[in-house]
Amino acid sequence: MDTILQFFSTYGSEMLFKTLEHLYISVIAAVLGILIAVPAGVALTRFPKGAGIVMGVLGVIQTFPSFAVLAFFIPLLGVGKTPAIIALFFYSVLPILRNTYTGVSGVQKSLLEAGRGMGMTGWERIRDVEVPLAIPVIMAGIRLSTVYLIGWATLASFIGGGGLGDYIFSGLNLYQPEFIIAGAVPVTLLALLTDLLIGKVEGWVTPKGMKKMREAA
């Protein structure tokens, strides 16, 4: 216990930097995943025959070992944060894309017909009906993906991406438990806090009127 306290006293400021670095890598990868996967998921609902193929390809990529994906980008992008973020981005896409497709596809056809009857364009139906009603399912995918990314981001240290993984792997190499704890505990706390925060955001972005419409439907 004294060793751990001494470690935090010595490396406290560095730990804060590593935590922010870890959060930066995870958040950028998650934001890229959201920007790509949500529109792509909505687009796939217009082409359901192609959706199975896209989901299958992404599912295969998801099964690739994390180290293999990281190593793949080293010859292309070198080492550092950029290849780590891009590798994590690939892992973020599938849960968000799948949930977006599922949520939008699950919107009641009667509501879409009502939108057409009101003179809504296709874009207006997506913006005002389909996506708002699918928000809980979409946010569940974002939540799952982001929490996973925070854990996977520890692997970024293998290619010089930094973050809390530096402590974990230094501890493993040096056989010093305090380094492992210094990396693992903040990662766990970040994942829990992120899950809680995204849950709050889900409540904020889901229109109350749409919640009632979903329940009534």
Q: Which key features would you list for this structure?
A:
MetI-like fold, ABC transporter permease, membrane, MetI-like_sf, single chain, 217 residues, 85% helix, transport, mainly alpha
Question: What is the arithmetic mean of pLDDT?
Answer: 84
What is the CATH architecture annotation?
A: Orthogonal Bundle
| CA-based gyration radius | 21 Å
CATH superfamily: MetI-like
The major sheet is characterized as: none
Share of residues in helices: over 70%
Query: What percentage of amino acids are in beta strands?
Result: under 5%
What is the CATH level 1 assignment?
Mainly Alpha
Number of strands: 0
SS summary, helix count: 9
List the domain count as a whole number. Answer: 1
Distance between the termini: 56 Å
Q: Provide the succession of SSEs.
A: HHHHHHHHH
What is the fold named in CATH at topology level?
MetI-like fold
> Which stretches are poorly predicted, pLDDT < 50 over at least 5 residues?
none
Shape: elongated
Instruction: State the secondary-structure class.
Output: mainly alpha
